[in-house]
Amino acid sequence: MSPRSRGRKGGKSRRSGPRILRALPPVESGACDCPACTGEDLDPQQLIDDLVAGGAELLEAEDPLEAELFGAAFLAAGGVAGDGFADALAEGIVPAVAAQADQRSLAVLLALGAVADGSAAADAATMLAGAGVPAPAWASELAEPVRVALCRRFSIADGTASALLCTFDRGSSSHGFLLHADHTDCHAAVDIVIFPGEVLGEVLDTLQKDARRADLKMTAEDLEPAEFRWQTERALDARAVHDADLGPDALADDDDADGLGYHQLAALLRARMRTLPEPPRPPAPHDEGSSPLDMLTMFRQLAAAPGTPRQRRAGTPKLPAKRKKSSGTAPIYQIKVALKETKPPIWRRLEVPADTSLAKLHGIIQTAFGWEDAHLHVFETAYGDFGVADRELGHRAEAPVTLEQVAPAEGDKFGYTYDFGDNWTHEITVEKALDRGPGPYPRCTGGRRAAPPEDCGGVWGYADLLEILADPAHPEHEERLEWLGLDSSADFDPARFNAADITRALTK
């Protein structure tokens, strides 16, 4: 389960446990440098040419799942455009690819047809095959039916989170998906992992071990395929709504080492869900997203057409594009995180990769200050406020956004507030951009003083706490010691700071 949790209006929220199975062996896939990921202007003809050129690599693939991931990556990029992309795909992109009439274009059409909701790409592939275009080696296996083998839900007893696990067989091979849903965030999907079927036992064992380590009571329940589809589509739909405000930046999320991102896997998982029976009840309601780009007109004409940008708050600049994979490894940012209004000052100096997501940066700061991620938080930047997506609070999703996007240059500053009740406000400053050394990263290289304990009442409450602990005759002295779990006030040293201890905690 995920370390990220969400409270309401500054109150506490129970943690959902550690993120699981990020390191399981993924299916290999190439990195995505499409315009939606890179932020470059979209040339429709160039897009068609690049798409067909990608078919050459597909011809070398051995596993049909690689072709499906190729198609899913393209659908994920198009998904940023909204509902209009489906029409653009059927009426513009597919005919343009089919017009190439070679083996590369057939491979692309087969890949798209395997995951797209509609028959246009599959029909075009059938037409090319009937015209004598040779099919790739994996085409026959791709055509075999996909059969669901296991549909299981793992639920945390307090109702804050669940994990949805399903496995599928096709021919002699099998694979599975694991989706983590945050019930405190509209049951939205947090992440998706794909794994080979032969490691299912390892996946199930890891789930149980993670729950025990986090001292969480977890129950397992096998679901009927139709009900499993309803649960999964609810999670995917809620995440899609929460990502909508970010536009193309929502696509460029935290890929794993092999280039598999959430939105690519979500597109493939949606295709798998369509092989299951229709759910027995209507989709879960949720707010609708913004209006889509006019993709259909653009691809019909194969000429650039202006889109309809999503609305941002007046005066808020557009978020810079995420770093391209072709740009190489991100530098290391030396940042200073200073807790405001504290005297003597309390701060941490950290070294983190510049492409660290804000969601991960939140966890790094929590560890550096010894806090427990028990409350809401927000990053306040020149490009808007980012945290757990919340329309009411005006917070956009933080997971797809990186540190260097909100602070592109040395000297840039932005805010971070944790616990809207105690209101721990911080100023984060990018002091230097460093060459990447041997690590480990992230790490702490400096700082001052111990951080205040959780729920002590903010800066002024912490000052009162220190006074009470320093006065054994104070009527609340013993009560505060008990609250902190200390035998003596000597056990709490407000001046204590050890960078090496924080680095060890960060690199566990």
Unreliably modeled segments:
1-40, 253-258, 287-312
Helical content, roughly? 25-40%
- Structural class category: alpha+beta
C-alpha Rg, in Å? 25 Å
What is the mean predicted local confidence, pLDDT? 81
Q: What is the helix/strand order?
A: HHHHHHHEEEEHEHHHEEHEEEHEEEHHH
* Strand runs, count: 13
Question: How does the major sheet shape up?
Answer: 8 strands, mixed
Distance between the termini: 17 Å
Strand fraction: 15-25%
Q: Can you tell me the overall shape?
A: elongated
Explain the layout of strands and helices.
Elements lengths: L34 H4 L5 H15 L5 H16 L4 H15 L4 H13 L4 H11 L8 H4 L4 E10 L4 E10 L2 E10 L5 E9 L3 H14 L4 E5 L2 H19 L18 H12 L21 H7 L30 E8 L6 E8 L4 H11 L8 E5 L2 E4 L8 E2 L5 H4 L6 E6 L5 E11 L8 E6 L9 H13 L6 H8 L14 H8 L2
Parallel strand pairs: 9-10
Antiparallel strand pairs: 1-2, 1-5, 2-3, 3-4, 6-7, 6-12, 7-13, 8-9, 8-11, 11-12
Structure, described:
The structure is a single chain. This protein is an alpha+beta fold. 34% of the residues lie in helices and 19% in strands. The strands form 2 sheets. It has an 8-stranded mixed beta sheet with strand order 10-9-8-11-12-6-7-13. The chain has a 5-stranded antiparallel beta sheet with strand order 4-3-2-1-5, with helices on both faces. It is elongated. The protein starts with 34 loop residues before the first helix and ends with a helix. Mean pLDDT is 81; it is low at 1-40, 253-258 and 287-312.
